[in-house]
């Protein structure tokens, strides 16, 4: 899901009200100023007197976060789990995939898993790009005998044309599936994990 907070950007040219959004790939800053800073570019991260500071690409960044400054410094320096770890895809695990995977990161995350038919899979990954694909999922699950956890990869953000989380949850909850976890995939893609309804 990521970490988000309101902050004050302390710059050489004054203060700016911003929102910090930390995902596994890096830090996105929006508001009165904007920046996208990959984790790999950050160094010398520290927290003091409610301010988080770090160096990225030779420039120093300072954000006033108050009491949460230490927690943010820890989050910036902690190696995030890989996408494979977030999805629960261990090497050798059996996975079924429906639809074309939309980003290379997802291809990489599933690369060590063994591809099998849906009824044999320990985990199923489904990509929905339009409302018709989403509407067909419950029937496809029944026809294929899917009774394992399913990650539904769907759109994220206003610019995405694919169904987003609210539509996906509504469609699958009506069919008895329970959503249990969410994972970011890329800027315009996310995934929600569902479990089938318990028998009886």
Polypeptide structure, described:
Helices cover 22% and strands 41% of the residues. It is an alpha+beta fold and 200 residues long. The protein folds into 2 domains: 75 residues, Roll (PH-domain like); 113 residues, Vaccinia Virus protein VP39 (Rossmann fold). It has a 7-stranded antiparallel sheet, with helices on one face. A 6-stranded mixed sheet has the order 9-8-10-11-13-12. It is elongated, with a radius of gyration of 20 Å. The two termini are 32 Å apart. This is DUF3052 family protein.
* Average predicted local confidence, pLDDT: 92
Estimate the strand proportion. 35-45%
| Rg measurement, Å | 20 Å
Largest sheet: 7 strands, antiparallel
Count the domains: 2
Corresponding CATH superfamily of the largest domain: Vaccinia Virus protein VP39
Approximate shape: elongated
Architecture (CATH level 2) name of the largest domain:
3-Layer(aba) Sandwich
The share of residues in helices is 10-25%
User: Strand arrangement, largest sheet?
Assistant: 4-3-2-1-7-6-5
Given helix and strand content, the structural type is alpha+beta
**Count of strand segments:** 13
CATH class of the largest domain: Alpha Beta
Q: Distance between termini?
A: 32 Å
Low-confidence stretches: none
Secondary structure tally, helices: 5
Give me the CATH fold name of the largest domain: Rossmann fold
Q: What is the succession of H and E elements?
A: EEEEEEEHHEHEEHEHEE
């Amino acid at each position: 899901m990521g970490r988000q907070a309101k902050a004050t950007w302390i710059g050489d040219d004054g203060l700016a009200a911003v929102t910090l959004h930390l995902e596994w790939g890096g830090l996105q800053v929006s508001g009165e100023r904007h920046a996208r800073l990959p984790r790999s570019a950050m160094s010398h991260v520290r927290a003091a007197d409610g301010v988080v500071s770090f160096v990225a690409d030779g420039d120093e960044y300072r954000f006033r976060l108050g009491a949460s400054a230490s927690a943010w410094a820890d989050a910036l320096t902690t190696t995030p789990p890989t996408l494979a770890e977030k999805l629960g895809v261990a090497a050798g695990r059996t996975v079924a995939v429906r639809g074309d995977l939309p980003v290379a990161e997802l291809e990489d995350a599933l690369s060590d898993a063994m591809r099998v038919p849906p009824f044999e899979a320990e985990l199923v990954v489904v990509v929905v790009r339009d409302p018709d694909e989403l509407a067909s999922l419950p029937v496809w699950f029944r026809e294929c005998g899917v009774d394992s956890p399913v990650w539904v990869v769907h759109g994220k953000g206003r610019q995405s044309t694919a169904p987003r989380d609210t539509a996906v949850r509504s469609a699958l909850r009506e069919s008895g599936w329970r959503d249990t976890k969410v994972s970011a995939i890329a800027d315009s893609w996310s995934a929600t994990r569902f479990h089938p309804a318990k028998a009886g």
